[in-house]
Protein 1
Amino acid sequence: MILAIDLGNSNIVIGGIDNTRTYFVERVTTNHGKTELEYAVNIKDIMEIHNYSVSEIEGAIVSSVVPPLTDVVMLAVKKITGKTPLLVGPGMKTGLNIKMDNPKTVGSDLIVDAVAALKDYPSPIIIIDMGTATTISVIDQAGNYTGGIIFPGLQVSLDSLSNRAAQLPYIGLNHPTKIIGKNTIDCMKNGILYGNAAMIDGIIDRMESELKAPVSIVATGGLASVVVPLCRHDIPYDDALLLKGLLILYEKNTQESS
């Protein structure tokens, strides 16, 4: 089993995975104030909750879009495993051809998602990742990462609405029963959830039209499970997509360097 960690702006995904199965996937809140010891305790506690020992970790890999925390988490992993994790970034072999104006600016999480999707789905592929931001990435017919879009995530939109409108409360995002709300909370919740579902449906249609080919679609990210069931497209949800991509990159880079 390898330890795979993705540092996002809101959450850190921590998982154990190998070629046979995903052993565990958990999320902890991204906290810039935590020390490497505190993150080491988080990782160790998660493993113990799932009845796995640190001694079962053969190696580790980290992707991050939070530069101030990258070294902290890297050191935390080394503290509990004794192994220096690989870091997704410049110089890592990905096998992914990135056709962007500046390929170096593409987020490591988007690269990892794309690597995983290319293994499991036929091109062209649309990858929806719903976290702090919602990203929709496109793999073209030839298997190239060819671009995408970024827009505010569900929670960001909801927090902004509540912050700027004095009479609108902070609410949860449980599944709505119908689209027409009968009170303020339901109206807000339905607007965020159905609004994002409709936006994703519309973007898929436009991207498919631009690609001039039927597309494979996959969604991931902590908030995607709430929105995907409301979409009109059939969108598989894969909570472990990032971990699968990290495993592929770990194996590619350890095998080729050995």
Protein 2
Amino acid sequence: MDLDELRALLARHARPDVSTPIEGVLISKVEQQTAPTTSMSGTVLALIAQGAKQMALGDRVYEYRAGQYLVASVDLPVTGRFTQASAGAPALGFGLVLHPAMVAELLLQAAPGDLPPLAGPTPSGMVVSDAPDDLGDAVIRLLRLLDKPRDVTVLAPLIKREILWRLLTGEQAAAVRQLGLADSSLSHVARAVRWIRDHYAQPFRVEDLARLTGMSVSAFYRNFQAVTAMSPIQFQKQIRLQEARLLLATHPNDVTGVGIRVGYESPSQFSREYRRQFGAPPSQDATRLRGTIRAEVPAVV
């Protein structure tokens, strides 16, 4: 993999909003180390060409740097920060949104024996590896299309498929493959994750979520912990606090109302847990957040 060319392509085509003319392809360029910020990871491949970034998921901390990639196979609440970035040497990253349907299509088209059978425990929803040359070369060829817009429509889908195939046959194949398997443990956990995200303000019983996923309570709890590094209740709390912070950016004078909207019955508990998560009480943080706009991009790029 030619890291110099990858850096040049990323630096030349970076935009403030990380989007590109190629659907699902993202580019980040950050010129300073950043404070930890919370967001959702998205389901995404993120490859770093320069600099380094740190992601915290529950009690796990992942760091990926130049020549390494991270895969998030479930949309998870994470806290991230760039640890190596400056004006002279900005952090440069490539992102590709991963769609389960595209992974499933490749799995169906693979010939018998092309993919080894899945084995071992349920993979984590977030993994990091060194990027092999064939993966990096495919990413470079995809980015080259930004200089040849007329080729994007025909060639970009082909190169995206190649990138997915490199992931499916690479070191982190298990995490990526389970993204496309409708009956995998990871997909069952992802179903519960979506339910919690959609109903984060509602109380729930773990038994009901286990029934939703078709697992026993013990198997569900074990697999949920393996994928998300959190218990279901801890996961719900992360979502509630993130949503509360977003609401406070536009409703800074209604701390009590925001707490109730995200599911807290006790204002004191809301304030205590919010401060523990973000380092400041809701009212103080709300003043600082005024005017903040939610970023609809994966956090890991």
Protein 3
Amino acid sequence: MNYLKYAFGEIVLVVIGILIALQINNWNENRKLRKQEIQIYLELKSDLQQTKSDIQKTVSEHRKIFELNQDLVNDIRNKKPNSDTIYNSFTNSGLDFQIIPKTSAFENLKNMGINTLSNDSLRIAITNLFQLDLKRLDDELGMNRSGYNISKLLFPYQNKYLFADYSQPTKYGFKNADSIKIYKLKIKDYDEFLRDNNLLKNLQLTLYNRGKKIDVEIQTMEAIDRVIKKIEEELKSRNK
């Protein structure tokens, strides 16, 4: 009888020891996961801050060209004389800028599993931002792959009306290559340029598309700000 009590006591001790070991192991694993989750949030925040900075620079450039484009439309409508200002507006109106969102942290999260993030609402917000808002930003409303691409809209007219003035050669240098001789471009057939209704139509379409791009970019920055705020709140709650 005493032997059975002793054996039972030994079994209980072994079971308790196993349970304690499992509890310690689970505690260590949970601690490791929490530390990993915090690191993911920090990396996501860093990527989003970098992406927002890139968007801000692009919005600034788009706004400058938006104004040039608007001025050019007004100058053509008012039949302004040919000038360097009109030339610069015409050549710059077709410029476009691509934003490439920084997504390395989100790609790492997908590899580990989206459910690594324990905060459900924040996980959904982050997923929507990267898979919807930033995807839309990268494609800019589908314009980059369509006939409404800003550069493509104006290139035929730039190719038609710009010519190289061989009387004004200049050298253009490169950092890691020999300099080259190039010639200043000018607008030819200026009276036809002013009367070209298709040119004016495409300039206005370009103006509209650039305005839509600016709207999308600013909306995306606002979405980024909201997610960054939620990440900061989550990190703050974990430090309490």
